[in-house]
Every structure is written in structure tokens, then in C-alpha cells.
Amino acid sequence: MKKKVLILFLVFVMAFSLAACSDDTGDSQPTATVSSGNTGSAPTATKPATEATPETKPTESAPTEPPTPDPDATPTPEPIDAFVLDFYHETSDVYDMYLGDVSGAGQNCTWEWVENSGLEVNITANDPYVAIDFLGDTFNLEEYHVMKLRIKNPTPCKILELFFPMSMGSIDATDVLQYARINASDTDFSEYVVDLTEVKGENFVAREVGGIRLDLLSLDAVIGQLPDDGWTVAVDYLGFFPTVEAAEAYSTH
Q: Is pLDDT at 188 greater than 90 in this prediction?
């Protein structure tokens, strides 16, 4: 029995020794791990902080001064509700349209456009007139019944005279306006506002006006004083307005 136990012990020792030798001299090679860089997760790159761009303040420009008005420039009147014959401003074209190329549209006078004066009519005999035909256009005198006139009258006559025909081909005494309240012997322009409804009545203004005959003055009483070179009357403008207030507010200067 002792022999069997001894044999078994020897066998166990031998087996253990062989196993130990096998671990030291075996053919198995260690596995090489190839590293291509750092192992593990790559560190997250942190971008350098961007420097804050300083705030750019807007450049303050010097305030633009309005242009200095030319004291010699002639102002152009703004459009208003009116029918106006503006002879003063060359740009209005009123003179060229109605008088510049008209032949025989008047008698006992000559006329021309003069800078800084307007329509100048040189009277050479009694009963002068300049006919302004609206060339087919008309305006309603009842609607625009307030007349405003700017005129320079160097004559001794104080009676303004105009005709308001519905057609320039049919003028008669029912078309006439005589207004005996203008200045005589003027050396400068004067303005006059006349409400035709009050002066002539509602029947007179109830018409479409197709032209105006500018007799300018009723000279019967003073014609004997006419000088050899005549009298020169200047007309700045002749306008017609719906109210007295609108007429008084109007000016070309």
C-alpha cells in the first residue's frame, strides 16, 4: 500500500515538472502590438481663442448745409388752382404761345416781351388792344371769378379795360370790364384784385372764356396827353382764381 502511494506521488511530481518546462521552452511567441500613435481616443483639439474685433464706430460726416439761394434768381411760382397768364417768367411760354408769333392780333400799339418786366405794350393811338386767343381752350369765369392783375401804368388814365369774349371772333359791348380804380402815373408795378361777380354780376361771369382782349386802358379822356413816343404799359401777370384769398396769396416774385 505504501509503495502505491509513493509511485503515485512520483508520477504527480514528474507531471508537474514537465508542465513547468513546457511553459519555459514552448514555441509560442508573444503577440506584438503595433501602435501607430497614441492609443485611446485622440484628444480634442482646442482652437485658440479668437480676439474680439473692436467695434467700428460709424464715421460722422459733417452736416450738409443747404445751398445758398441765388439772390438774383427769379423764383418759379408753385402750381395752384387758377388760370394765370404769366408774362414775367420767360419759362412760362405764355408770351410765345399767345403773342410771340401772332400777326395782326392788336391795334394802335406794339408789344414785346422784356426781361424783368414781362409784356410791354407801347400805346401809339387811342383805343389800343392786344388780343390773346386761347386757341380753342377755355376757362369757366364763374368758377374763376376773382381777377388779379399786376401792372405798371405810367399814363394819366385810371380806368382799366378788358374784354372777356366766349370766342375771339364775336366780341361786343356785353363782354367788357371797366375798372376805374387803378393808379395813374405809376413808376413801379401795382397789384389789383377784382371780384368780377361783385363788379359785373352773376350773369356776366356765367360764361366760358375763349380769350381776352387787353385794351388795358380807356384813354378817351386823356388821349390828348399822349406823347410822341407813346405810353408803355407793362403787364407782369393776369390771373383768375376761385376765391379772393387765393388771389391775394398768389405772387410771381
A: yes
DSSP assignment string, the chain:
-HHHHHHHHHHHHHHHHHHHHHHHH-SPPPPP---SS--SSPPPP-PPPPPPPPPPPPPPPPPPPPPPP-TTSPPPPPP-SSEEEE-S-GGG-HHIIIIIT-SS-EESEEEEEETTTEEEEEE-SSS-EEEEE-TT--EETTTS-EEEEEEE--SS---EEEE--SSTT---GGGEEEE--PPSS-SS-EEEEEEHHHHH-HHHHSSEE-EEEEEEE--TTTGGG--TT-EEEEEEEEEEESSHHHHHH----
Asked whether 235 and 121 are in contact (CB, 8 A), the reply is: yes
Average confidence score pLDDT of the chain: 79
pTM beyond cutoff 0.70: no
Going 94 to 192 to 151 to 229, the CA torsion angle's sign is positive
pLDDT in tens, 16-41: 555 544 444 444 444 433 333 444 44
pLDDT in tens, 135-146: 888 999 999 999
- Specify the fold of 83-249: Jelly Rolls (2.60.120)
State the Cα–Cα distance between residues 114 and 98, nearest whole angstrom.
15
Distance from CA of residue 185 to its chain's centroid? 41
Whether the per-residue pLDDT at 43 is higher than 80: the answer is no
What pLDDT, on a 0 to 100 scale, did the predictor assign at position 194?
98
Q: Domain-by-domain residue ranges, the chain? A: 83-249
Interior angle at CA 234, CA 236 and CA 152, nearest 5: 90
